[in-house]
Amino acid sequence: MKNKISTLSKFFLILSALMLVVSIFVPIWQIELDAPQYPEGLALQIWANKIAGDVEIINGLNHYIGMKTLHTEDFIEFTILPYLIAGYALLFLLAAIRGTKRFLYIAFAAFVVFGIVAMVDFWIWEYNYGHNLNPDAAIKVPGMAYQPPLIGFKQLLNFGAFSVPHAGGWLFVSAGVLLLVSVLKEAGALKKFIGRKKIAGTVAVFGFLLLLSSCGSKGPEAIRLNVDGCDFCRMKISDGRFGAELITEKGRIYKFDDLNCMVGFCDEQPKGSIKSHYINDYSKDNDLIDATTAWYVYSENLKSPMGGNTAAFASKEEALKAAAGPVLNWSEIVSNVQQHQGDEEQGHH
User: Fold this and answer.
1) What are the Cα distances from residue 214, in Å, to 84, 171, 188, 269, 290?
2) Three-point CA angle 32, 36, 38, nearest 5°
3) Where is pLDDT greater, at 174 or 36?
4) What's the CA gap between 279 and 217, in Å, rounded?
5) Among 318, 260, 275, which residue's Cα sits nearest to residue 294?
6) Measuring CA to CA, which residue among 150, 125, 114 is closest to residue 31?
7) Alpha-carbon dihedral 212, 213, 214, 215, rounded to 10 degrees
8) Are 338 and 346 in contact (CB under 8 A)?
């Protein structure tokens, strides 16, 4: 019985196996590229079986600096990786079924080796693509290499490269943490730090917070008055009654000092690229609410920073109480702003 593992460790093994299975069907890693000419950024997503994201655009840019173009079929890793991940999931399940410390330790050691080999292989892949450049490239910078960071940020000419785990990567991390906790628990190391009855609860809370932080949807970010600038007119955002914000499908946040600016910015973006819109509640101090469910009052007397002259309220009742003009919903106020912007453009011509 001394060689047997606890029910909690078996549960962690099974949960880790499920996490690995899910990681096969979601992106594991992502490299984001930011540059002035690409305000939305470019993303290269690495799945277990393919490369996805803005691959064609990135390949076009790589051609100018002499880097090889990226194609899924050029990497044997994408052929074998799904089977390797599935194999480790089966190993974890087998360790849970056998229920011995020896199998647990073998599973953990094998997973650590897999993680190290995978990161070394990733680094070599990045190194080769960043250093083995075509000498006949249109753009040549003496001594310059274009190897992205293994993890974190690196400046590559006018591009900022961010290399970070995606959902599948965080599932790998979570599985590794659960295995490590199981190993420490069965070795008796956790007893020195946590009471036996608290181990399950502590790890469960930690795992939940880890998954929540990695997989949760991104919400609005508070506007810092007199610090943040409007991403459309470039003025400082100073009036908390009229500020606005949007989040793109890629998770990028843009802030505005006026509804006018947010609508103007949206009109310049590709269709379907905006995920959510927020607007400050006029009756509160710098408090963002969902712009698509808010109610609006338009009046020349409101005098907002960039001429939007629109107040937003969380409920129709609040809007009616403060009404200095007609009460409009989201689609109506957007049409109203666009019409005013069109009239102003015609007036300038």
Assistant:
1) 23, 9, 30, 27, 23
2) 55
3) 174
4) 18
5) 318
6) 150
7) 40
8) no
Q: Which pTM was predicted?
A: 0.64
Half-sphere exposure (Cβ direction) of 314: Cα atoms closer than 13 Å: 6
Report the distance separating Cα 277 and Cα 318, nearest Å.
Answer: 20
- DSSP count for the chain of H helices, then E strands: 9, 12
Beta strands in the chain (DSSP E): 29-35, 38-46, 51-53, 152-156, 159-165, 244-248, 253-256, 274-280, 288-290, 295-298, 310-313, 327-328
Cα–Cα distance between 98 and 197 in angstroms, integer?
A: 24
Interaxial angle between packed helices 101-131 and 167-186, expressed in degrees from 0 to 180 and rounded to the nearest 10: 150
From CA 305, how far away is CA 240, in angstroms rounded? 11
For residue 239, give both structure tokens. Answer: 């009036």
Confidence of residue 344 (pLDDT cuts 50, 70, 90): low
Q: What's at 218, amino acid-wise?
A: K
Please, what is the Cα angle at 66 between 60 and 71, to 5 degrees?
55
